[in-house]
Specification:
- The chain is α/β, with parallel strands linked by helices.
- It is built from 14 helices and 17 strands.
- A hairpin with a 5-residue loop joins strand 15 and strand 16.
- Helix 7 packs parallel to helix 9.
């Protein structure tokens, strides 16, 4: 009951029951009695009205959620994360308006497993999606490698609970635009909690028709005018959904196809970055990472054009939010599914000072950009250093929306809401990885754990262990395993226990392996390009 109503009741009751109300013991002045009766009825009516207003007032609308997921974008591919060649003004501005995480991780160094972890809040080992869908399993394996990769699930099971299903049950309109790559038809977004699906199919890239330009040859995305650019089209679809649903809470999930291969940019953007590259005098430079060459300089004009087009698409959606008057009640998230492609398929970007890239368990393969804008909650420009991982998004979005937890469902992530509200750092916890596959970028099967400043990598081919102090050695150049055996034992035990807990499937020995022949970690078509400044491998489906 509000203070003004209480004050009114107090004043009028005193007036109706004054000192002179009594004319004799046990009697009341008739005039005063009438006035008191009227006052009491006024108070009763006001109380009833107050309760009615409270009971029937419109509930506070939960925040809208817009979630951008880039494909194969490295942490250092944004201006706000240090790139001086790629231009990303919209994402840079979003970081100034929100929070920028410095130690955000993908649950896997390739795409499908990370995407499954975002949707379910579970490590890939629990969903069974541990490699990019379409990769050869053990039975079909024909590469000359020490191990045969573990088998994996080629679809996200319908029995899994997705964040789209949780938000839909909480009254949200749900929308998907972009890359799915989590199973064949029947396991597409519309089967996993999304009301609308624009472009989400089984493929890992835009491989049909004109690829990044219409016609798309995509059964879930109608062709646009000839030459229409895919990231802009997906942004247009997302903007339309936002405008159509501005009267109710919504979840718009926009997992880009960009900047995945095939490497294709708008002609004007390609020209822009060719001129910028020449003006800055940037030249190709490569180093060595295991059996592969690794790019050391960001100067790939086509890739730069793809990054800018992605940023422009983000800008178009952010403008739609503003135009609809929804900025103050919309949380916007941007991240990526794995590290930048630096050792294969044209090696278009450099992740330095991070080591390696997509397909590798080093930081360049799993450390991601993460920007969160939440007006009125997240302090503009805040930098958050706490280590977080992609399974954390599910409980975070569930908490923001007020969604119900499913009894008995194991969730590996933790809610980031306290961090976003500035309520302090999360309790220190280990983050885990298990990639029992070879991928297409030269990496090998392995597992990793990070706890505090230390990260341990275990390579399954030979059991080799690498221990790094990431605070002092972000580039993972100094292996401390021999110097800190106790720390190695501690983290090894944690990693082994976690693998048992999640039922991790291990790779097996390859009886066909011939050590006298070239390693299958360096495919024949890449071998032909060795020493020529690039690894010109056929674009993969991951």
């Amino acid at each position: 009951m509000n203070a003004s109503l209480l004050s009114f009741m107090h004043r009028n009751l005193r007036a109706g029951w004054g000192r002179d109300a009594h004319v004799a013991e046990g009697t009341l002045n008739p005039t005063r009695a009438s006035r008191l009766q009227k006052t009491i009825w006024q108070c009763v009516v006001l109380i009833f009205c107050e309760l009615a207003v409270t009971a029937f007032a419109a509930p506070v609308r939960p925040p809208n959620i817009v979630f951008f997921l880039a494909d194969d974008l490295g942490q250092r591919d944004l201006g706000v994360y240090g790139s001086t060649f790629y231009e990303t003004p919209n994402l840079d501005r979003m970081a100034r308006d929100g929070a920028r995480f410095t130690q955000a991780y993908a649950a896997c160094p390739v795409c499908s497993p990370t995407r499954a972890s975002i949707l379910t809040g579970r490590y890939p080992q629990r969903t069974g999606v541990t490699d990019y869908i379409g990769a050869a399993g053990s039975a079909a394996w024909n590469r000359n490698t020490v191990l045969r990769p573990a088998d994996y699930s080629d679809r996200l099971a319908l029995e899994e609970t997705t964040i789209a299903e949780v938000l839909k049950a909480a009254g949200y309109a749900t929308f998907f635009a972009g890359k799915w790559h989590l199973g064949p038809e029947g396991w597409w977004p519309e089967n996993q909690g999304f009301d609308i699906n624009r472009g989400g199919i089984e493929k890992g890239g835009p491989y049909g028709g004109g690829k990044y330009f219409s016609p798309y040859d995509n059964p879930r995305l109608k062709d646009g005018p000839a030459g229409e650019h895919l990231p802009d089209r997906l942004a247009t679809e997302t903007a339309k959904f936002i405008n159509d649903n501005k009267g109710r809470p919504f979840f718009a999930y926009f997992p880009f196809y960009s900047v995945h291969t095939p490497l294709m940019a708008r002609a004007d953007l390609k020209k822009k970055y060719e001129e910028k590259r020449d003006r800055l005098g940037l030249k190709e430079k490569f180093g060595v990472e295991g059996p592969r060459e690794v790019r050391l300089v960001q100067q790939h004009a086509v890739y730069a054009g793809m990054v800018e087009a992605m940023d422009l698409a983000v800008g178009k959606v952010l403008a739609a939010i503003d135009d609809a008057g929804l900025r103050e009640n919309t949380i916007v998230i941007f991240t990526s599914d794995n590290g930048g492609l630096s050792t294969s398929e044209g090696s278009p970007t450099s992740n330095l000072p991070l080591r390696g890239g997509k397909g590798w368990l080093y930081e360049g393969g799993v450390r991601e950009p993460l920007i969160v804008r939440w007006p009125g909650v997240v302090h503009p420009g805040v930098v958050i250093d706490a280590p977080v991982s992609s399974p954390d998004f599910f409980p975070t979005l569930r908490d923001i929306a007020g969604g119900a937890a499913r009894p008995g469902l194991t969730i590996d992530g933790v809610s980031l809401v306290p961090l976003l509200r500035g309520a302090g750092a999360t309790v220190e916890r280990p983050l885990f990885w298990h990639y029992p596959h070879y991928g297409n970028q030269g990496g090998a099967p392995g597992g990793a754990v990070r706890l505090g400043d230390f990260k341990l990598i275990e390579w399954y081919e030979d059991g080799r262990l690498e221990l790094f102090n990431l605070r002092d050695d972000l580039g993972e150049t100094h292996n401390l395993a021999a110097k800190l055996p106790a720390k190695v034992d501690e983290l090894s035990a944690r990693l082994a226990a976690w693998r048992r807990e999640v039922g991790a499937v291990m790779p097996t020995r390859n009886s066909s392996y011939d050590s006298t022949k070239p390693s299958g970690r360096f495919p024949p078509n890449a071998q032909a390009a060795a020493g020529k400044g690039k690894n010109a491998v056929k674009p993969s489906q991951d």
